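Encode chain A's predicted structure.
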Amino acid sequence: MSRYEKGKKSLESIQKRSVEEIFGELDEIAPDLSKFVIEFPYSEIYTREGLDLKTREICTVSALTVLGTIPQLKEHINAALNVGNSPEEIVEIIMQMSAYCGFPKSINAMMAAKEVFKERNLL
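Encoded structure for chain A:
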């Protein structure tokens, strides 16, 4: 299986959506960037042994909270829910990140989580 196919399989299993649906907008301007994302993090990182997907996604939610990248954070909050994290766990990790990234980024992340929870009828 190629790196692309391995990454595509991994990404689609976590996101519960097709690669085309996830990266359609990006593909219009930079298809190679989509390919790089599929082939590196989802093929080479997410499929490594040592951490389960639940742990990997909570780490990703933490990092994206600290970085303040809301569109990607929302995608990974959905993914975290898809692989077994609870809304309560996601709220707690975002709250913990307030000590490392400050209240504005944590509040923004919490509002992103609220949007995802609302879309999924989890509020």
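Residues 103-119 form the longest helix (17 residues).
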